[in-house]
Design brief:
The complex is a heterodimer of chains A (226) and B (231). In chain A, 31% of the residues lie in helices and 27% in strands. Chain A is of the alpha/beta class and 226 residues long. In chain A, strands 7-8-9-3-10-11 form a 6-stranded mixed β-sheet, with helices on both faces. In chain A, helix 4 runs parallel beside helix 5. The mean pLDDT of chain A is 89. The chains are: A alpha/beta (226), B mainly alpha (231). Chains A and B meet through strand 7 and helix 2 of A and helix 6, helix 7 and helix 10 of B.
Chain lengths: 226, 231
């Protein structure tokens, strides 16, 4: 379970969001500029809230009243960014192993093989990210985040930079990740179609506030996958 | 033409040693200062930036004279280092290396700082979400990505140190075999009748070394750059 209750001023814009979820995949849904990425950055520990509390299962990650602020590198939260952010100076294989090295986890060849097969990135392992296609890059980014054995996976519009064909290529992988990896996911998107395919819970954001939280009915009129 | 006398060889070897030591010793300080200037906001940052760049704009003789006052045997820092660590700068080749390092420092810091600033900070955020603390993020992401700039800065620093004249001769004089670098030797040769041929030989050597350094830096920077874009 993840419980978020945060406040943050960002210039003219302010965020005051509170929600809780125990779903396998929860969508943060809202138009651009509604504060989705900022909230996810606060959960990851990349942005510090002015006030509030963030807890994951029984661990408090941030609590302004108790002066708790677990550093990003100690949160064990996998993060797939919109633009992948693979390390350009490392090979795909080294990118995949980076989280394991930095988190001091023992090698787990079976798990690595399973995820490489799940994402179908075996052929890319010796290459560097510079020459990968957008879809390949995002798949490697999913693998890199999963292989650090995260307690929670944050996906910030991971398909936004891809064209329609690439999105259709990746969506099934995401559905398999959700079902097989057994890591709770928070999926940020403004595309109702993607969310319908993946999520069971929806937190709808508007102008930095939680407007509603509940099931897929919050997405509004049915939409096809983009 | 390249029939150098032993004294001339000594000057060439000494120049290389002084420039190399100056570059290697300046490097960690250069990386640290460049990182501070590129990444941190602190009180006195503009002052630090100014002090680092001062040798670039001050007359070299001023820098050399200040070094003489502070790092000479009777200077505040010089006497301390002599007494507690046995390190002596005045009229030694180590002093020449210090003068060259100080004079070349702005070039080193500038190149490294620019490459730090050019790095996508979001990659460092990605590293921290993957469990890398500040040190490991720096060691595995920031520094490798800045490598072309670090190499370029080192070569600039080396080339500048090789050619330094004003501060060195002011601080440690022009002693053959101890502080007489190529530049100082050329200067001496042009002051004596019949020294033109020898001076010219050293001039050619100076050009060859500087050119080789620049080509080497270009090669390393290109190789490092290729690693990020090739597959």
């Amino acid at each position: 379970m993840i419980a978020v209750d945060v406040e943050k001023r960002l210039g003219e814009f302010s965020i005051a969001a509170k929600f809780e979820t125990s779903a396998g995949a929860t969508a943060l849904f809202g138009p651009s500029g509604s504060g989705k990425t900022s909230i996810v950055n606060m959960i990851a520990g990349l942005v510090r809230p002015d006030r509030g509390r963030i807890a994951l299962d029984n661990t408090v990650l941030f609590d302004s009243a108790a002066k708790i602020d677990v550093a990003a590198h100690q949160r064990r939260i996998g993060y797939v960014f919109q633009e992948g952010r693979l390390f350009p100076h490392l090979t795909v294989a080294q990118n995949l192993d980076y989280g394991r090295w930095m988190s001091g986890l023992p090698a787990d060849a079976a798990e690595r093989e399973r995820i490489v097969a799940l994402l179908d990135i075996g052929a890319l392992l010796p290459r560097r990210p510079g020459k990968l296609s957008g879809g390949e890059r995002q798949r490697v980014a999913f693998g890199r985040a999963l292989l650090m054995k995260p307690r929670l996976l944050l996906l910030d519009e991971p398909l936004a930079s891809l064209d329609r064909a690439r999105k259709l290529e990746i969506l099934p992988f995401l559905a398999r990740l959700r079902d097989e990896a057994k890591v709770p996911m928070i999926y940020v998107s403004h595309q109702a179609g993607e969310i319908q395919r993946l999520c069971s819970q929806v937190v709808r954001l508007e102008d930095g506030r939680v407007e509603a939280a509940g099931g897929l009915e919050l997405l509004g009129a049915p939409e096809t996958t983009h | 033409m390249f029939d150098l006398t032993p004294e001339e060889w000594t000057a060439v070897a000494l120049s290389l040693r002084i420039a190399l030591v100056a570059t290697v010793v300046a490097l960690p300080f250069g990386v640290a200062v460049a990182w501070l200037l590129a990444r941190k906001n602190f009180w006195g940052k503009a002052l630090l930036d100014g002090i680092v760049h001062l040798p670039l704009v001050l007359p070299p003789v001023v820098t050399g004279y200040l070094l003489l006052i502070w790092f000479g045997r009777k200077g505040a820092i010089g006497s301390f280092l002599d007494e507690y660590f046995g390190i002596v700068f005045s009229f030694r080749w180590t002093g020449a290396a210090l003068a060259c390092g100080v004079m070349a420092f702005p070039l080193l810091v500038r190149a490294i700082r620019l490459s730090f600033e050019a790095i996508d900070r979001r990659l460092e955020d990605a590293a921290s979400t993957l469990g890398a603390n500040g040190f490991w993020t720096f060691a595995t992401v920031t520094l490798p990505l800045a490598l072309p700039g670090v190499i370029a800065g080192m070569v600039l620093c080396f080339a500048k140190a090789l050619g330094e004249f004003g501060a060195t001769i002011t601080f440690v004089s022009n002693i053959p075999g101890e502080t007489q670098t190529i530049s100082a030797a050329i200067y001496t040769l042009t002051q004596v009748p019949g020294g033109d041929a020898a001076a010219l030989r050293l001039v050619v050597i100076a050009i060859v070394i500087a050119l080789a350094a620049l080509i080497a830096s270009e090669y390393f920077a290109r190789r490092a750059g290729m690693r990020y874009h090739g597959d």
